[in-house]
Amino acid sequence: MPNLEDLYRTNPSGAHYISHFPVQNLLYLSGTTPRKDGRPYLPGVVGKDLTVAQGAEAARYAALTTLAAVKYALGDLDRVQQIVHMLGFVSSAPGFSDQPRVINGAADLLVELFGERGKPTRAAIGCQGLGGNASVEIIVTLLFSGTDVRPPLARDHFAK
To answer: Which CATH number do you get for residue 21?
Structure first.
């Protein structure tokens, strides 16, 4: 699982957003893209540069990045009570319509880790291009136990 602080430090975009925000016991997370060994993983357009299986693998890695943010925020993944919602964007070739199968890569990982608690409400949306040429981006909202949440990381604090 990636280290969230390292991921934020190595992104030179300087974009204005934060990693997460708690509202009572709901944790809203910023969108994440696939990363492996600190680098973008499986970039490109699904249905053109990547197969559905590769897109699903990319979605799985995007979910790992989300889990890094959850672990950073909550300190422990065991505090996750329910994945409430997942919104998945797939950089899609014209005519590509298997976005749900691509986003299954992320959903399957959440179910592997959390069982029934990992099944979210969700949407899988095709789009033309994502930042950094990412193939997939996911956004997760979850319910958590306890009250302690670390302050969010702000991406623009790491701008170069």
So the answer is: 3.30.1330.40
Total domains in the chain come to 1
Ramachandran angles phi, psi of 8, nearest 5° = -70, -35
DSSP assignments along 35-93, one per residue: EETTEE-S-S-BTTTB-HHHHHHHHHHHHHHHHHHHHHHHS-GGGEEEEEEEEEEEEB-
Sign, CA dihedral 61-106-55-45, equals negative
Residue span of the structural domain in which 32 resides: 4-158
pTM of the model: 0.91
Rounded CA Rg of the chain? 15
**pLDDT tens track for 28-80:** 999 999 999 989 999 999 999 999 999 999 999 999 999 999 999 999 999 99
* Residue 42 in tokens: 């499986």
